[in-house]
Amino acid sequence: MKQNILALLSGVLFGTGLAISGMIDPARVRAFLDVTGNWDPTLAFVMGGALLPMAIAWQVLKRGKPLASNSCPLPSTSQIDWRLISGAAIFGIGWGLAGICPGPGIAALAVKPMSALLFVLAMAAGMGLHNIIFSARRLSRA
Fold it and tell me: What sign does the CA torsion over 16, 20, 25, 31 have?
């Protein structure tokens, strides 16, 4: 229960940060990517601001266990395979087509629910389809 509450609070904090920084606005993200035009460095500051809490988290992890768990399972591999590359490509294509990143899309539900709802529903459908496809593959291998 404690982990769920902390996860919820972390998500709310993250979403609030996205909303305050303006990162739920696709135009602001596109302006960051427009380095030859009217460039907006706000996203660089947001990413830079994320470095401090992450650096603190890594120091906590080095000294022992996380605050809300007995362990912190790190990835067991750093292998780059077709699943990683295709997943990253699908993520990028979806972001490019919709103009919305998943995190800001969910956060936008609180601020602009009607414009974000279609995106979030499509994202959920894609995640459900992924689960159906890979669950069927796992069952056929068993």
Answer: negative
Token code pair at residue 142: 């068993």
For the whole model, what pTM was predicted? 0.63
Q: Residue 109's domain spans which residues? A: 79-142
The pLDDT tens digits for 4-33 are: 888 889 888 888 888 888 888 888 888 888
- State how many domains the chain has: 2
Q: Are residues 61 and 104 in the same domain?
A: no
- 140 and 92 part of one domain: yes
Q: Report d(CA 137, CA 131) in Å as an integer.
A: 10
